[in-house]
Design a protein that fits this description.
This protein is an all-alpha fold. It has helices at about 10-25, 35-45, 50-65, 70-90, 105-110, 115-130, 135-145, 155-165, 170-180, 180-195, 200-225, 230-235, 240, 250, 255-270, 280-290; strands spanning about 100, 105. It is globular, with a radius of gyration of 18 Å.
Length: about 290
Amino acid sequence: MSLAAVTIGEYIEQLSRRVGESLDGLVPPETQPPETIHKAMRYSLFAGGKRVRPVLCIEAARAVGGGEPDGIMDVACALEMIHTYSLIHDDLPALDNDDLRRGRPTSHKVFGEAMAILAGDALLTHAFVVLGGLGDARLVSELATASGTVGGMIAGQVHDIEGERQPATAELLERIHRAKTGALLRASVRMGAIHAGADEEELDALSRYGEHVGLAFQIVDDLLDVLQTSEQLGKTAGKDAAQQKITFPAVHGIEASRRMAEQERVAAHACLEGFGANAGRLHELADLIVDRSK
């Protein structure tokens, strides 16, 4: 089937539905004791969203091998569990203190802070149960590093919290977001490529693609926080400015931030030159990530 036969939006919807079906089979049901924690895990895991990280993972595997290798859906689902855990914890009063996520009350508003913390912890640990079942230590290491404290997601969160008390500089901004958002997006692409048997050159090219789309994703997220309403975002708009967060519009301005996102898009496309038609959806995903702000 040609790319033109199914639009990127339709394709993401189809693939997201498949990811959701796989997640449903991988996460304990709500009837499994202790029921409350499994309800809380599922509440956030099935709250919607485009499943960007699983889609990037699956498409990176396609770019390398031309199809979906066995087990790739488990890799993709592990990434989504980690992402969802991070959202639950980000929304807690001690961090970003948000009451709305994907148009619904956040986990701690529904289940209480203690259960929300545990739901995030449970998704974090269950991701490695799923990933460990594939028997590839490289995937475990990749996801753990991207989630951790040395250039990973937790490092970015620490930089973000401490940055609220520091001067807003371009250097600190990039340090925050290459780790907080970019690391897991980059890992999504790398893990798909690794699972598909990418050689060193292919992995390097896709890693650079992941870095560019990861940075573009965060730039656009920062722009949307300024430009869209809470209803459009599905979460509280304007919180970055209210909390004096270091963001791309705050440091560079709106128009310069848009230009930066466009530069990252162009660079991402260039990284895919060696993959031909197999990378068609990755090209479309780079465009979609940047065009969200238009």
